[in-house]
Amino acid sequence: MSSIVQGHCDPAFTRVREAFEEHFAEGRELGAAVAVYAGDRKVVDLWGGVADRRTGRAWQADTPCFGFSCTKAVTAAAALLLAERGAYDVDGPVTDWWPEFGAAGKDGATAAHLLSHQAGLPAFARPVSAEEAADAPARAAELAAQEPEWTPGDGHGYHALTYGWLAGEIVRRHSGGRTVGAFVKDEFARGLDLWIGAPDEVIERAAKLSAGRRTGGGTDAPGTGSPGTGQDVLTRLAEAYTDPLSMMNRSLNNPHPGKGGYNNPVVLRAGWPAAGMTVTAPALAAFYRDLTAGRVLRPDTLREAVRPRVSGPDRTLLVRSSFGLGFMRPSQTFFTPRAGRESAFGHTGAGGSVGLGDPEAGLALAYLPNLMGDQASGDLRAYRLTQAAYASLS
């Protein structure tokens, strides 16, 4: 094993180790970690490189990293657990438990619309600061009063950041006022190095994000570069991202994280429920391990949650996306090897991170880098690792 990469890899999963080492050898990584479970057996737990470019601090076995939109899957699981317990009806009106949400023509919205990017609220109507974003009830109230971009249910568009305060309000209103982070820790992540709202000691030892060479792409856009993604599509994405009036730009960049970007302690402490999780790769993989094994949600709940509710052109991302209730399904925003295209689910995050579960294959995987990849030119690191994991199973 190369001196850069450390940790454990089952001999049957050597392909994953080789792909991970190649990324470092090719200069595609600064620091990163990847973890894989086959059933309940942890078969890959690898890390390497530099956690903080400025100080040279090395990535350790327990180094947490900001997970961007990988957070959405965890938030969705929290909301779905409450539905499973009978707290609310996923397909019932939001106004049954959040009367104010019916303002401005949104009275027909269901919780399923909130969880599947159909709510018509992909962006705030005004600039929101990182400090304001820390007040989750206020941000939810602001979205409840806001006029939608489209009638809820009449199409879908990625709610890059607003998703968290919409889905998070489901959790807050049905869990005695708990934040998503508190509910997750209480209910299914107590023993995991996973925080949606990190304490200061976790922030101090977390990996620091570094910008890679970029030609466009979103602050929190899922990866869109893949085998078969045409250059015309990539150009269109880059143009939309730089247009301040585009839905993509407004969705991905507001609230703005402020000084230090997503290394800003204000953001890390707040734990935005759409993009605010700090986590280790083994912990994120363990979340998917438990989810696919029926230890977070009942198997029937999970099957319904990953059933595609929307598939097709995404009004925000301008490519084809597919979502269940909070979980991505294989599409142009969640590239999955052929072996997992019918059964895999999960969520990508900005810069290249991913969490994935596949109940049929018995696979759970997480990958977290701190060198931000460039979605608009094609960041395939997570895809290569996932492909290697599936190949190892066979």
TrEMBL record:
Coiled coil regions in record? none
- Beta-lactamase-related domain location is 17-388
Mind telling me which InterPro entries this protein's record contains? Beta-lactam-related (IPR001466), Beta-lactam/transpept-like (IPR012338), Beta-lactamase/esterase (IPR052907)
According to the record, the residues making up region (Disordered) are 210-231
A Pfam family of this chain? Beta-lactamase
Output compositional bias ranges, type Gly residues: 214-228
Instruction: Spell out the protein name for this chain.
Output: CubicO group peptidase (Beta-lactamase class C family)
